Amino acid sequence: MVTFHRLLLLSVLISFVLGGCAQKSTLIPKSDKTMLDIYNEHQKQSAWKKGDVDSARERISRPSEMGDRDLEGYTRDADREIEQLFPKLPNPVLVMYVFPHLAGEGKYPVPGYSTAFSMYEEEHYALPGEVE
């Protein structure tokens, strides 16, 4: 068993020594291109040309030919934001009074205090139309 551990250690050391002897030029190929050259070359090969991008921007900025009526119910507006499509269900806050007591091994006095916590650990939301 001891020979196995020694053999394993020896093989790891040899791999580190041989790995350290590798030349930087073989690991990282030398190139005369700058990052700007690489970027520009990529832009030329890219499927999106400048004209395509400009026409897409125009289509997005143009008002819809369908009209806003066709999108009613799918888009957000101030009325829907105020209504809250998914209202929070009630989660009552419970107030508990802790009476004065002695705590710990040394029986240290703790004064009475009030604490508040929610009845449920998580907030729950109603589905549309569940709560009036």
Keywords:
4 strands; alpha+beta
Instruction: Report, as a whole number of angstroms, the end-to-end distance.
Output: 75 Å
- Strand-residue proportion: 5-15%
Mean pLDDT: 76
From the structure provided, what is the oligomeric state, counting identical versus distinct chains? single chain
How much helix, percentage-wise, in residues?
25-40%
Low-pLDDT stretches:
none
Number of beta-strand segments: 4
SSE class: alpha+beta
Mind explaining what this structure looks like?
By secondary structure, the protein is of the alpha+beta class. The chain has a two-stranded antiparallel sheet. The chain is flat, with a radius of gyration of 35 Å. The termini are far apart. The model has no long low-confidence stretch (mean pLDDT 76). 39% of the residues lie in helices and 14% in strands.
What is this structure, in a nutshell?
With 132 residues, this protein is α+β, with helices and mostly antiparallel strands. The protein is built from 5 helices and 4 strands. A hairpin with a 4-residue loop joins strand 2 (101-103) and strand 3 (108-110).
